[in-house]
């Protein structure tokens, strides 16, 4: 296990190096940037320098006057030393802005992911054990509906019913108008109340895929020879399903869980935009459209690290859920 972890960590470092280079290359190749926008604004002031002079000055100030390779190694050095710089778009340190918005998205994504697992896996198992029954058809219809519904349509439908017609929730925003007059517990409940519809949206549009995935893998396991042998030995159906079959169904599900780690921090751009939630998804979109290289580099590099960590975690969990899998 130790040799395996060392090899995977070294490989992850190599992959991370090339991923950061690709990210920086894309940032430098963006057709519009913050410095160009700022140069245009400054050049339009009365008696100001021309646009070209402002552009040269700002590029030198932000280190964009260097070539791609020298600029990349400067950015890589900053990343490795923890010097992430200031956000060009939000004019605050990158880490500060990141900390302001990441936990909202993490809370939404974490709760939605837990609910997704609690709903999708049991329903997928039930649908597989009752194949071609009314229960199976009902679960399949629910799953396909969730997969087919566009996020913007379902979110708009929820707001129409529960915000406009019933008045149970506010249309948009993370806090209510009386937020500043509430105590700590009241402020917590106010934010939780505003996150109900966004979380429901994330759960419904994502639960269908995992549900169908669980059902398909469970059916494949139930048709295996060792399951027939277990039934022939007289084991109860409950023990056959939940002790023998379900344990092997977890193996492909581990891949889904490990790959979902970056998604907990990635934010949900469409959902956050529709509900006006100031999360990392909407913030990173604003930074990228403004050409904010420091914030975009930090955020995308952070997601790359999480992706590599998630893949490594999935490999390790294989040996936990299946005793047949051993890493030599």
Number-wise, the strands total: 0
For this structure, what is the CATH homologous superfamily of the domain at 94-321? MetI-like
Radius of gyration of CA atoms, rounded to a whole number: 25 Å
Helix content: over 70%
Global structural class: mainly alpha
The average pLDDT is: 82
Low-confidence stretches: none
What percent strand?
A: under 5%
Q: How would you describe the oligomerization state of the chains in this entry?
A: single chain
- Shape-level CATH architecture of the domain at 94-321: Orthogonal Bundle
Query: Main sheet, how many strands, which sense, barrel?
Result: none
If you consult CATH, what is the topology of the domain at 94-321? MetI-like fold
Query: What would you call the shape?
Result: globular
What is the C-level CATH assignment of the domain at 94-321?
Answer: Mainly Alpha
Number of helices: 15
Ends: how far apart? Answer: 7 Å
- H/E element order: HHHHHHHHHHHHHHH
Fill in the keyword field for this structure:
single chain, about 325 residues, about 75% helix, mainly alpha, 15 helices, globular, MetI-like fold
């Amino acid at each position: 296990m130790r040799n395996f972890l060392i090899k995977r960590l070294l490989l992850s470092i190599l992959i991370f190096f090339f991923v950061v280079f690709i990210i920086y290359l894309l940032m430098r190749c963006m057709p519009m940037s913050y410095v160009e926008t700022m140069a245009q604004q400054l050049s339009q002031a009365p008696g100001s320098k021309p646009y070209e002079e402002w552009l040269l000055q700002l590029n030198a100030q932000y280190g964009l006057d260097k070539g791609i390779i020298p600029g990349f190694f400067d950015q890589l050095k900053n990343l490795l030393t923890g010097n992430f710089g200031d956000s060009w778009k939000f004019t605050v340190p990158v880490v500060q802005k990141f900390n302001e918005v990441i936990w909202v998205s993490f809370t939404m994504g974490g709760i939605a992911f837990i609910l997704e697992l609690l709903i999708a896996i049991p329903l997928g198992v039930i649908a597989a054990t009752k194949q071609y029954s009314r229960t199976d058809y009902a679960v399949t219809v629910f799953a396909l509906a969730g997969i087919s519904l566009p996020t913007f349509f379902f979110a708009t439908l929820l707001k129409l019913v529960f915000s406009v017609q019933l008045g149970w929730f506010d249309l948009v925003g993370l806090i209510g108008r009386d937020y500043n007059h509430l105590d700590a517990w009241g402020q917590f409940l106010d934010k939780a109340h505003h996150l109900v519809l966004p979380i429901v949206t994330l759960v419904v549009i994502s639960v269908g895929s995992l549900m169908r995935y669980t059902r398909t893998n469970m059916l494949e396991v139930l048709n295996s020879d060792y399951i027939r042998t277990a039934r022939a030995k007289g084991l109860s159906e409950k023990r056959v399903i939940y002790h023998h079959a379900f344990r092997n169904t977890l193996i492909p599900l581990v891949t889904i869980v490990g790959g979902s780690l970056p998604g907990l921090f990635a934010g949900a751009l469409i959902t956050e935009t529709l509900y006006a939630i100031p999360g990392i998804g909407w913030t990173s979109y604003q930074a990228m459209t403004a050409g904010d290289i420091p914030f975009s580099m930090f955020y995308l590099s952070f997601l790359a690290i999480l992706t590599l960590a998630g893949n490594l975690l999935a490999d390790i969990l294989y040996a936990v859920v299946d005793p047949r899998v051993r890493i030599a």
